[in-house]
From TrEMBL:
<keyword id="KW-0496">Mitochondrion</keyword>
<keyword id="KW-0677">Repeat</keyword>
<dbReference type="Pfam" id="PF00153">
    <property type="entry name" value="Mito_carr"/>
</dbReference>
<feature type="repeat" description="Solcar">
    <location>
        <begin position="81"/>
        <end position="165"/>
    </location>
</feature>
<keyword id="KW-0812">Transmembrane</keyword>
<dbReference type="InterPro" id="IPR023395">
    <property type="entry name" value="MCP_dom_sf"/>
</dbReference>
<keyword id="KW-0472">Membrane</keyword>
<dbReference type="InterPro" id="IPR018108">
    <property type="entry name" value="MCP_transmembrane"/>
</dbReference>
<keyword id="KW-0999">Mitochondrion inner membrane</keyword>
<keyword id="KW-0813">Transport</keyword>
<keyword id="KW-1133">Transmembrane helix</keyword>
<comment type="subunit">
    <text>Interacts with PPIF; the interaction is impaired by CsA.</text>
</comment>
<dbReference type="InterPro" id="IPR044677">
    <property type="entry name" value="SLC25A3/Pic2/Mir1-like"/>
</dbReference>
<comment type="function">
    <text>Inorganic ion transporter that transports phosphate or copper ions across the mitochondrial inner membrane into the matrix compartment. Mediates proton-coupled symport of phosphate ions necessary for mitochondrial oxidative phosphorylation of ADP to ATP. Transports copper ions probably in the form of anionic copper(I) complexes to maintain mitochondrial matrix copper pool and to supply copper for cytochrome C oxidase complex assembly. May also play a role in regulation of the mitochondrial permeability transition pore (mPTP).</text>
</comment>
<comment type="similarity">
    <text>Belongs to the mitochondrial carrier (TC 2.A.29) family.</text>
</comment>
<protein>
    <recommendedName>
        <fullName>Solute carrier family 25 member 3</fullName>
    </recommendedName>
</protein>
Amino acid sequence: LSEQPAAVKRRRHLKRLNRSSATMYPTSLTQMARANPFSAPLFTLQKVEEPQHSLSGQRPRRLAAAAAADEGDSCEFGSQKYFVLCGFGGILSCGTTHTAVVPLDLVKCRMQVNPDKYKSIGNGFAVTVREDGMRGLAKGWAPTFIGYSMQGLCKFGFYEVFKILYSDMMGEENTYLWRTSLYLAASASAEFF
C-alpha cells in the first residue's frame, strides 16, 4: 500500500521537528522538563549529546540540582517527624491565611444579608468599625482558625501519608511512571478526610 501525500508530508515534518528539538533542547534535563507529565507512561526522552562548547566561545555552565542538607536541618522523608512537620505546615498555611481574611469575609456576609445597610465593601468596613469598633472586624476568628487549621493539617499531612502509601503499593517503577496520577489520588484521598 502506498502512503498518501499528506501522510508523507506529516512524517517528514515530524522528523524535522525532532531534529530541531534535539538542537533546541540539548540536555536530557531540558528534554525531561518539556515532557508532558500527563502522558506518562507513554512519553519518551531522546538521548542527546551535550555540546562541548557554547556558540559564543564561553565555557558551558555546570548546573547543580540540590544541595545536601545539614544533619540537624532536616528530617528523614516518610518519618514521623516528617508527617508532623507537613501537618504543622498545613496548620500554618491554611489556619493563618483564612483567619487573616475574616474581616473581609465578615463584611461580605453582612453585605449579602443587609445590602441596604452595607452598600459596598468600604462602607461595610466603616459601618462595622463605627458600630462594633476594630474588634468587631474579628468576630468569628476562632472557629475559622480552628476549622481551617484542622483542614490544613489533614490536607497537607494526609497527602504525604497517602503519597507514600500508594507509592509503596505500586512499586518504585510504576510510582515514577504514574506519578501524576499518584499525586492526584493522594490529594483526593487527603481531601476526602
